[in-house]
Structures are given as structure tokens and as C-alpha cells.
Amino acid sequence: MPDDGGRLLAAGPRVGLRPFSLHDADEFTARARESRELHRPWLFPPCTPEAYAGYAGALIEDPARAGFLVCEHPRNPEHPRNPADPEYTEHPEYTEHPDHAERGRIAGFVNINNIVRGAFRSGAIGYGAFAHAAGRGLLTEALGLLVTYAFGPLELHRLEANIQPGNTASRALVRRAGFRLEGFSPAMLFVDGAWRDHERWAITAPEPRRGAGQRL
């Protein structure tokens, strides 16, 4: 997905989704470092600018991947933004680059990997909330936006999420978004130094409604 400078592709009441940009390295990696305790042992987002460049670059350039930053709306009433607010000045890019403040602070990310077209039209999702956004329902809203965008403009038919059984928060998140449990795969993915078991959750696009006068 091209780096288009931060245009929102989908928006809800409190958050919006925009493509990853190489210019977001400082804020993203600062948030990732702040969130290590929350993320481990399930999630390992890039914590350095060098790691972020490779991670974001792949999401931007690889047609089989689509990455989105979850950004709070600048006027979110839960967190009004003004220069006196410590959250506003915590990261220098808000004062050095006013456009970052206008786009809203990064609350997390939602990605679609391994996109296959043709008859399959499927992708595997990955996601994470940063510590300041955890427990506020922002990622739930973002995942709903992602599903709608994937089944709309991206023209996908199926999304899957592979989740370690012990990750109860992630399992609850996809369940709220309408995913169903499809199965269990032992030693499926290599995570944190070992092959880990995963549950397979998935959601498919709703069937088009038949017209009132259409015969079955």
C-alpha cells in the first residue's frame, strides 16, 4: 500500500485508519517501547527506527500486505488536545510537526498479511493497541473499520486471525468483531523462540441480500 502522507481511509467515532508512513517512525517506536509489558509475550512490534523502516517498508511496498495505523481523532473528547496537555508534548513530533497532531496520536495498528487474490480473496490479520489506548475500546472500533474496509474497497472475502490460546484479550477482541473459531493448529507459528500452538479464527464477507422480488 503506497505511502500517501497520512490520508484517512476509514473513520469511526473515535479512531481512523490511515496507511503506514515512514515518517511515523519516532512516534510508533516510542509507543512500542512504552508498551513492551502489555505486548509480551504475544506481540513484538518494532521498537527502533531501523526496525520500523523495514517493517513499515514491507507493509507499504508488498502488494500481499496492507498495514494501517489506528489514530485517535484529534478532537476525541476523551483526550482533548492542547499544548498544555502532557500527552501533547510527550512526543516532540507533535510540536515540531503540527500535521501529526492534526492527524491524531497513534493508538495502535491493524495489518492484513498474506493477501491472496483469485478464488480465495483472503488475508491474515495482525493487530495491537499501545499502552495508552488499551482497555478503551479503540482497537475494537479499529478492527470493525478494518473488516468493513477489507470487504469493501479491498474486495476480500475472508479474514483470518491466528491466536495463541492463552491470549484471552485477543480472542475476546476477534469474537466481538464477529470472527468464529474454525480450528486449532499445533506448533503453527514460530513466536518468541519456539513453535506455538494457535487457534484459527475467521470471518467471511456477508452474502449479498437478494432483492425482494428475486426468485430463489
Topology:
Blueprint: E1 10-11, E2 15-19, H1 25-34, H2 36-39, H3 49-61, E3 66-72, H4 86-89, H5 93-96, H6 98-103, E4 106-116, E5 122-129, H7 138-151, E6 158-163, H8 168-176, E7 180-191, E8 194-204
Parallel strand pairs: 5-6
Antiparallel strand pairs: 1-2, 2-3, 3-4, 4-5, 6-8, 7-8
The gist of it:
With 216 residues, the protein is of the alpha+beta class. It contains 8 helices and 8 strands, in the order E-E-H-H-H-E-H-H-H-E-E-H-E-H-E-E.
What would your notes on this structure say?
With 216 residues, the chain is α+β, with helices and mostly antiparallel strands. Helices cover 30% and strands 29% of the residues. The protein has helices at 25-34, 36-39, 49-61, 86-89, 93-96, 98-103, 138-151, 168-176; strands at 10-11, 15-19, 66-72, 106-116, 122-129, 158-163, 180-191, 194-204. The chain has an 8-stranded mixed beta sheet, with helices on both faces.
